[in-house]
Specification:
This protein is mostly beta strands. The chain has one helix spanning 18-21; strands at residues 3-5, 15-16, 22-27, 35-41, 45-48, 60-62, 71-75, 80-85, 88-93, 95-97. The chain is built from 1 helix and 10 strands.
Length: 98
C-alpha cells in the first residue's frame, strides 16, 4: 500500500513508501465486537480503497470490513474513478475466534 500525493498539493504528485505514509493502530475485541483498525494518513496524501487488505492467523475468521465513506476521484494513472481516503480512517473488522 502506498500513499499518493495530490498533484496540486504540496507533495506534488509523489508517492510515499508504506512505512512513511500513515500511522497504523489496531484494537482487537474478544467479545464478538468488531476489531478496530485506524490509519492516520500523512497530510496532502491519500490511500486507494482497493489497496486495503486484511489477513488472519489460524483460529480466526474475518468478517466483511466496514469502511467509512471515502472520496471518489478520477485517477489519470488508471484511467478510472477510484475510492480514496485521507486523514484519519477507521475500519471496523468483525473477528470470530474458533
Amino acid at each position: 500500500m502506498a500513499c499518493v500525493a495530490d498533484p496540486g498539493g504540496r507533495a506534488g504528485g509523489h508517492f510515499l513508501d508504506p512505512e512513511d505514509c500513515s500511522d497504523f493502530s489496531a484494537t482487537v475485541a474478544e467479545d464478538g465486537r468488531p476489531s478496530r483498525r485506524a490509519l492516520a494518513i500523512a497530510d496532502g496524501y491519500y490511500l486507494y480503497h482497493e489497496r486495503f487488505a486484511s489477513s488472519r492467523s489460524d483460529g480466526v475468521q474475518l468478517g466483511t470490513p466496514q469502511y467509512p465513506p471515502g472520496k471518489v476521484k478520477f485517477d489519470e494513472t488508471f484511467n478510472k474513478e477510484v475510492l480514496t481516503y485521507r486523514g484519519d480512517v477507521v475500519v471496523r473488522l468483525p473477528v470470530e475466534y474458533r
